[in-house]
Amino acid sequence: MMKNRLLLCLWFVVAPLQGGASADVDLGAAGFSGDRLSRLSQFVDREIAESRLIGAVTLVARHGKIVHFESAGRYGLDDDRPMDNDALFRIYSMTKPITTVAAMMLYEEGAFHLGEPVAKYLPELAGMS
Question: N or C: which end of the chain has fewer CB within 10 A?
């Protein structure tokens, strides 16, 4: 039941983006560099070649427009099928990346600075060394 809820939640996040996939997206107008986006593909290919990844699907979007959507590698150690863009993955321990994204959004808004002591925001940690 929990797995179905997670997949449903992910669908609501990704589904609005699917309509935005287009080769006609102007990367510059969307705030992206084609050269820099190609580094993402190069990184994934290198990780697969060095056996740190088996397969991956990467997607980058802004304002509902997909500017990069690519799959690489294969499904698994025992599954040599090429990875598909619509592959399903089990997702574990999502609190860390979600918390990190929320923190970075606050950082971008100027809510805190990375050089400040943690005790400024969590006084209970002031005595720690």
Answer: C
Q: For residue 86, with 0-12 CB atoms within 10 Å meaning exposed, 13-18 middle and 19 or more buried, which class applies?
A: exposed
Q: Which of 22, 33, 51, 93 is catalytic?
A: 93
pTM above 0.70, yes or no: no
| Backbone torsion region of residue 64, taken as left when φ is above 0, otherwise alpha when ψ lies between -120 and 50, otherwise beta | left
Residue 97: C-alpha distances to residues 5, 51, 73, 102, 119 (Å): 19, 23, 23, 9, 23
Name the most confidently modeled range: 9-13, 14-18, 25-29, 54-58. Answer: 54-58
- Name the DSSP letter for residue 21: B
Q: Is 93 a catalytic residue?
A: yes
